[in-house]
Amino acid sequence: MAEIQFARGVAEEVVPDVRLTRAPDGTNGAATFYFDHPKALSENGVEVTGMYLIDEEGELASRDVNAKFVNGEPAGIEAVYVMKSVEDWDRFMRFMERYAEQNGLGFTKSS
Question: What is the pTM of this model?
């Protein structure tokens, strides 16, 4: 089980586009998630409190979450998860491997 939530207990059904960056020495990095028309913005009563990456190892959380609006209508959510150590990077990658397998995602390395 691996899921992403924006409010505790409410799994996001939209699969995001994820872009990874990492320092050349591997000491830190960031993952930028973009959700196109996520369920969290379309449901009444759901308060976005952060982005929570939940799997059998536990939870990773980020408060760097921004809603995107087009003509006053919710269009997407962009969230950034920052990794400050090699251990953080490894833990995040284990989550992403589980999430990718569960949602049929692939990895493309930039050239």
Answer: 0.89
Q: What is the total residue count of the chain?
A: 111
Q: Using CA atoms, how far apart are residues 23 and 92, in angstroms rounded to an integer?
A: 15
User: What domains are there in the chain, each with its CATH number?
Assistant: 2-103 (2.40.30.220)
Burial class (CB in 10 A: 0-12, 13-18, 19+), 99: buried
The CA R_g of the chain, rounded to the nearest whole Å, is: 14
Per residue of the chain (111 residues), what is the pLDDT tens digit? 899 999 988 899 999 999 999 999 888 999 999 999 999 888 776 789 999 999 999 999 999 999 999 998 889 999 999 999 999 999 999 999 999 999 887 766 665
